[in-house]
Amino acid sequence: MLRVNPIHKQPMSxxxxxxxxxxxxxxGGISSLWHQIIGHVGSLQQFDVYGLDYKAAxxxxxxxxxxxxxxxxxxxxxxxxxDADYRIDGPHTFHxxxxxxxxxxxARCVTTVHDFTYESHIHGLRCxxxxxxxxxxxxxxxxxxxxxxxxRDELLRRLPDVPASKVEVVYNGLNPAYNQHxxxxxxxxxxxxxxxxxxxxKRFDFAVEACADAGLRLCIAGSPLTKSERQLLxxxxxxxxxxxxSPNSARLGQLYTSARCLLYPSESEGFGLxxxxxQACGCPVIALAATSVPExxxxxxxxxxxxxxxxxxxxxxxxxxxxxxxxxIAAGRANAARFPIAATTAAYxxxxx
Length: 353
Description:
This protein has 13 helices and 15 strands. By secondary structure, the chain is an alpha/beta fold. The protein folds into 2 domains: 186 residues, Rossmann fold (3-Layer(aba) Sandwich); 161 residues, Rossmann fold, CATH 3.40.50. The protein is globular, with a radius of gyration of 21 Å. About 3% of the residues have low confidence.
């Protein structure tokens, strides 16, 4: 049993943040959102905030910016699937970054649901274990936060026994780091940018084919390439790709600012943070009009109705025309402004109080 260490101490509402996401991913939207939430709540005088920490967390880009959290080495890789066990006095709110519950008898649990990608695109034991943990957390939490209307509707469709009254929609907020000016890199002006996970439903393979068809280079921001990915790139884009491994927000902002466009061909999203990050940086976004994407991206002529090379070409045409490109960039910046992080953190402040 772990004795949690306080991040910020005031005799007010107690909140325990379960920071396990930092040990599950090195780079990604959930980590970015979590960093913004705990940074904001931890700065408020009304909260007494504690953090649970885990092995390998210091490999995460966002975690490295939170030195006030004490490192804790957990002994087993299955810890992510177990309820959090810790000592703290009195009633408090427990919020896990990834579908865990608390064993504490006086904990009020809050769960944030990011998507139902596992349930839609991943099968077998891995999906069964993930879904069982997620559905249990949803059913036993006092409040469930969904990051988009699409995700909320999907939750209520998949779990009709969950009262709609305990489900709240809180959009992911834009990290203010992307609102600053970034100096573009001229050498990336002919690059299409691909950001984030390259799981099968993200359709990295389509991004490679699209670049091959357009005769453009591909800049890949995320985890290191796998052997099969490198083989695909060497076959279809020899000498025309580069990789940025787990870039921080400053570097990613520079990539967004420099690229010809962000290609986001994902077939399943709960929100899609790279869309508004790119828009805030003045980077046009070509995306597949699937799941939550139309809700998030706003009005744009660059949406692909289907994942075909013809639809990609149609999306690229206005991007490559100076007048319409300027209009797309201006509309994108205005759309990104719909998702201020202040609105997100204010909503979580209310939920956690």
